[in-house]
Amino acid sequence: MNNSSVNEKEPKHIAIIMDGNGRWARNKGRPRASGHQAGFRTTRDIVEACARRRIEALTLFAFSSENWARPANEVGLLMDLFLRGLKSEVGKLHENGVRIRFIGERSAFSSKLQQEMMAAEDKTKANSGLKLAIAVNYGGRWDIVSAAKTLAKKVKEGQIDVDDINIELFSQHVSLNDVGEPDLFIRTGGEMRISNYLLWHLAYTELYFTDVLYPDFNEQELDNSIAFYSGRQRRFGKTGDQVSKTDA
Ligand code: IPE
Ligand code: IPE
Ligand code: MG
User: Fold this and answer.
1) Distance between CA 198 and CA 204 in Å, rounded?
2) In a domain? residue 188
């Protein structure tokens, strides 16, 4: 049986674009900040729900490399929320066996924030529960260019040959190389786009878009997305017949 063609029914790795905080707040006549705070509470619930469902990995898009273009006060607010969130949540996540990692270009953040990120990673590195990755100042193109740069340096230093570069080796040099590609991608907030998220990794991921604004996303919505995933036949280029034969 070829496992790569069998839909495991439950996704092992879920990636989410948490979108719609601003519109949620506007709909309620509140400032965007309150949408981000509500989104933060949703994240807490979703991480817990994924851990309870024994999902192996969860990758969340918290701040894109393009989000710096937002008004300075909103960027500042997101940074504050991020820092406070790290301080308040890491202890509990650690108790629950969650391993935290950050992906993205972190040199752009304050040294305080960089320290907190490193401390969270260090504290939780030996945990064997949910592998949580938070994408901050992340861009899919940046990720691919970084991998290309690292490989170019290795060629220059004679560690590898140009002809050693293939998809397998390249995959080992992009972010999330130890958790692999997401099985299920979720974007809340109604937009049907990738917004420079995991461009390399989403090649064969099942894509789920919902109009639900992120603060309203909850366990039931998570289950809806998992049910959607379970109903897909993952063919990876084969015919449906081939896949159902190997499935049997
Ligand atoms: C997502 O919600 C949060 C971040 C990008 C940090 P938005 O802030 O993009 O919400 P909308 O899209 O304006 O509603
Ligand atoms: C994507 O949402 C980034 C995050 C959720 C962190 P955006 O709201 O920034 O995406 P666009 O600008 O609408 O594509
Ligand atoms: Mg948005």
Assistant:
1) 11
2) yes
The candidate with the shortest Cα–Cα distance to 41, out of 61, 63, 18, 72, is 18
**Cβ(63) to ligand 2 under 6 A?**
yes
State the CATH number of the domain containing residue 76. 3.40.1180.10
In a domain, 18, yes or no: yes
- What phi and psi, each to the nearest 5 degrees, are found at residue 58? -135, 125
User: What is the tens place of the pLDDT at every residue in 9-55?
Assistant: 899 999 999 999 999 999 999 999 999 999 999 999 999 999 999 99
144 within a domain of the structure (yes/no): no
For residue 164, how far is its CA from the centre of ligand 3 (angstroms)?
40
CA of 240 to the centre of ligand 3 (A): 36
What is the Rg, in whole angstroms, of the alpha carbon atoms belonging to the chain? 19
Examine the residue annotation and report whether 143 is marked as an active-site residue of this protein.
Answer: no
Lowest mean pLDDT among 146-155, 218-227, 236-245: 236-245
Look-up: residue for tokens 């919505």? 221
- What whole-number distance in Å separates Cα of residue 75 and Cα of residue 9? 38
**183 is an active site residue:** no
